[in-house]
């Protein structure tokens, strides 16, 4: 017997409405989490379009060929959109986690500068959140879930 479930006057358990509310909160939280993780990539990619030459110059200054900038922009923008929509979530999240770690190691390794250390740890934290998506998937409010039916 479930000690948390009670029985109504008609003999029906009131556990179902609680589970439904819990499921709704979980589904909404998964969607919100995907959006919050992705908005940084989306805005960063779009910002690089608006500051193309400055970004290319910064990339070159740390030894990354500026010819890769279109790939960087596509990775950030398309990856963000895929995660928000929940399409190929596990694969895209794994790729973006690797991308976040790679950019941390290339662009944010001057730990004598506190801002750079914070940026490094931000990228590592984002990679951690993305790896949770790899492990758990996008959830029911996603294209992955809809296409699996």
Detailed description of the structure:
The chain has one domain. The chain has six helices and no strands. The radius of gyration is 21 Å and the shape is elongated.
Q: Which helices and strands occur, and which strands form pairs?
A:
Blueprint: H1 15-50, H2 52-61, H3 69-85, H4 89-107, H5 114-136, H6 143-148
Helix pairs in contact: 1-3, 3-4, 4-5
State the main characteristics.
single chain; 149 residues; mainly alpha; 74% helix; elongated
Helix/strand class: mainly alpha
How many helices? The count is: 6
Percentage of residues in strands: under 5%
Shape label: elongated
Unreliable stretches: none
Secondary structure: number of strands:
0
Order of helices and strands: HHHHHH
Helix content, binned percent? over 70%
Overall mean confidence score, pLDDT: 91
- Give the N-terminus to C-terminus distance in angstroms: 33 Å
Q: Quick recap of the structure?
A:
With 149 residues, the chain is mostly helical. It has helices at 15-50, 52-61, 69-85, 89-107, 114-136, 143-148.
């Amino acid at each position: 017997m479930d000690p948390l479930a009670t029985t109504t006057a008609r003999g029906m358990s009131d556990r179902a409405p609680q589970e439904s509310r819990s499921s709704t909160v979980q589904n909404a939280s998964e969607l919100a989490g995907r959006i919050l993780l992705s908005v940084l990539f989306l805005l960063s990619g779009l910002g690089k379009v608006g500051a193309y030459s400055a970004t290319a110059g910064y990339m070159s200054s740390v030894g990354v060929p500026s010819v890769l900038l279109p790939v960087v922009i596509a990775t950030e923008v398309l990856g963000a959109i895929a995660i928000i929509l929940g399409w190929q979530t596990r694969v895209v999240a794994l790729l973006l986690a690797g991308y976040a770690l790679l950019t941390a190691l290339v662009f944010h390794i001057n730990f004598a500068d506190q801002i750079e250390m914070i940026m490094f740890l931000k990228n590592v934290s984002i990679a951690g959140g993305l790896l949770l998506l790899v492990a758990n998937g996008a959830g029911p409010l996603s294209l992955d879930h809809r296409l699996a039916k």
